[in-house]
Design goal:
Number of helices: 4
Number of domains: 1
Structural class: alpha+beta
Strand content: 15-25%
Number of strands: 3
Shape: elongated
Distance between the termini: 21 Å
Helix content: 40-55%
Largest sheet: 3 strands, antiparallel
Strand order of the largest sheet: 1-2-3
């Protein structure tokens, strides 16, 4: 189970597991031209958002309570969780 995040320009891609462990990272040449600081900030934001999605998928798939998710170190950031929830297909939602 994982989630990906990519820059709008598609020249940076991250894939993370629930909890934020980095599984894959791709940085294409154009992204390097933005400079180290800009690229670092973009990477951190992509990892943060992808982690929220992966965490939400894990919560749903495993049927975790808020307490269980907290113990496992899954995202508790309300804004990110709402963003992840908004991108979760209806077919994944509990009926």
């Amino acid at each position: 189970m994982s989630a990906s995040g990519s820059a709008h320009s598609r020249d940076v891609l991250v894939e993370v597991a629930p909890g934020g462990a980095l599984l894959d990272l791709r940085i294409d040449e154009p992204a390097l031209r933005r400079g180290g600081q800009a690229l670092a900030q973009e990477l951190l934001e992509l990892v943060r958002r992808a982690t929220a999605v992966a965490d939400q998928r894990a919560r749903h798939t495993l049927g975790l309570t808020d307490r269980d998710a907290e113990v496992l170190g899954l995202t508790a950031d309300t804004e990110l969780t709402e963003h992840a929830e908004a991108t979760t297909p209806d077919t994944w939602r509990a009926q």
